[in-house]
Amino acid sequence: MMRYSIRGPRRGSALLATAVALATVAACSGGSPSGSGPSASSPSGTSASASPTSAPPPSPTPTRTYPLSTAPLTVPAVGAHEAARGPGWKPVPTAGIVIAAGSEGLADEAKLLAGELKIAYRGAVAARAGDVELALGGKGAPESYTLTTRDDRVRITGPDQAGVFYGTRTLKQSVKGSGAMPEGTVTDAPAKPQRGLNLDIARKFFTAEWIEARLRGMADLKLNQFGLHFSDDQGFRIASDTHPEIVSAQHLTKAEVRRILALAQTLHITVVPEIDSPGHLGAVLRAYPELRLLNVQGVPRQGAIDISKPASAKLVDELLREYAALFPGGWFHVGADEYQALTVRSPEASYPQLAAAARQKYGAQARVQDLAEGWLNDRAAVVRGTGKVPKAWNDGFFRGGVVQADQGIEVEYWTGKEIGARPPAEYLAEGRKVVNLNDEFLYYVLGEPNDFTYPTGRRIYEQWTPLVLRGTTPVPARYDSQILGGRFAVWCDLSRSQTAAQVADGIRMPLTATAQKLWDERKPTATWDQFRALAQRVR
Fold first, then answer.
1. N or C: which terminal CB in the chain sees fewer CB atoms within 10 Å?
2. 449-488 per-position pLDDT tens digit
3. What distance in Å separates the CA atoms of residue 465 and residue 317, rounded to the nearest whole number?
4. Alpha helices in 363-406 (DSSP H)
5. How many CA atoms lie within 13 A of 456 on its CB side?
6. Which residues contact 82 (CB under 8 A, 6 or more apart)?
7. How far apart are CA 189 and CA 222, in angstroms?
8. Cα 9 vs. chain centroid, distance in angstroms?
9. pLDDT greater than 90 at residue 417
10. Distance between CA atoms of residues 17 and 13, nearest Å
C-alpha cells in the first residue's frame, strides 16, 4: 500500500492551519525597522503602506509539501526508483496517451495502455499536463526502460519497443494497485533475456482462447517467451498441409495459430514451437508404422522413430520446415529427449540396425548415441536453415562419443534423473548456452506422476534462481551469463487430472514467482506473504 497521499489534499486541517499561520507571520514581520512611525525610505514622511504607488503586502498563500516518494509496487518489482517530492500521476478524464515524434511504431502499445487506463489515445501529438508520453530512444540494454513521473505527466522511454511496453506494464500495475504512479524516476531492465511459460498441448488440448488468456497474463509479468509443445505420443495438435494424416481430431487450425501469434507479437512474446524427435513421435508414427523403431525381437518402442531409415529424416524435416514457416519467431525446439533406444543397457545389442547405421555414417568406433547426436545436429541444421536458433533438451547431449552436439544449439536443462543425464556444469564448462526448466521447481505435471508434485510459488520465490539448474544446488556464479533465462512448464502426463480452468488457477502464483526471479534474480526484500498479497492487488 502507498504510505502517503499521492495528490496531497488528505493531509488534515491542522497542517493546513499551521501553514496559514506561518505564512501570515512571515508576511506581517515587515514594515518599519521599529515597527512604528514613518518609513525610513519614505521622503514624504508617510507610511510606505499608505503610498498610492506602493504594492500591497502579499496575501498568505499556503503551499502543499510532499514526502519523498517510494517505488511503485509492481510484480515483478522495478529495478531502481529515484525518489522525488510531488503529487505523482493518476488517470483523469482529461488525460491521454501520446506518442513522441519519431516513435510512431509505439501506436499499438499506446492504444493498449489507453484502453487499460480508460483514457484517450491522442496519437503523435505534443504531451500536455496529465498525459502519458511514450518514446523510443536513448541508450540501454534490450527491453530496458525509464519511466519518469514529474509535473503531472509520465514519460516512458526505451531503446526498443519491448522496453517501452514493459514500462507501460509498470504504470498499469501501479495504477491498478494504488490508483496512481508515484513521483520520481524508474530505471528497469530484466536480468535474463528469455523468460516464459512452456505448455504441452499434445497430451491435453487447450483452446486458442485459453492460450490467449495466458499470453495476456504473461505480458503483465514481463514474460517474453511461450514454448508450445504440440507433438507427442498422445496427439499432434496443429493442422498440417504437408501431412494432414497425422493431425489429431482436437487441434488448432492454422488460422487460430496465426491469431495467437498476432496477439503474442503485440505483447512482445515470442512463440517457440516444438516438434520433439526422435522420441515422442507416437502420434506421427500412427500414420507411418513402418518408421517405428523395433528392437532386436521386433517389438516397437513407444514413440520412437527409426533414425537409421532415410524416410524418417525426410518426414520430420518436412514438418520442421512447414511449421518454421508458420511461426515467425527466432527459435525452434527440436526435442531430442528420452529416445528409447538409449534407455537400455546395450543399445548396440538391442538395436543392431542403429549400430550398423552409426558405423556406416561415422566410422568403426561410432555407437548408437553418435547416430542420435548426428540426428540432433541434422535437425538443428534444418531449423537453422530457416533462420531460427535450435533448442534441444539436455538429455539429447551426450558425453564422449565420436559425434558432438553442435555448439549453437541452446540446451534446455530440465532434469538430471534420466539415464546418462549430465550435471549442468558440464554443459556450461563446454561454453554452451543454457535455459533453465529445472523439474525440481518449474515442472507442473498433471496428475503428479513419477514423484512430481505441483510446484508452489513460495518455494520458487524463496529458493530458486536461474543458477539452480538441477535439484536445489546452484551452479557457480561465474556461469551466470551463459544461463539465458528460464521457463515454467506445464506437462499433461495424466491429462484428465485437471481441467483447463484448474491448470490456469494452479500455475498462477508459481508463474508469478518465476517471473519475479527471472526479471530480478536477487533475493527479494518482500516476504512471500507480502508478494502474494501484492500480486493479487496489481494483477
1. N
2. 999 999 999 999 999 999 999 999 999 999 999 999 999 9
3. 36
4. 368-385
5. 7
6. 184, 185, 186, 187
7. 10
8. 38
9. no
10. 6
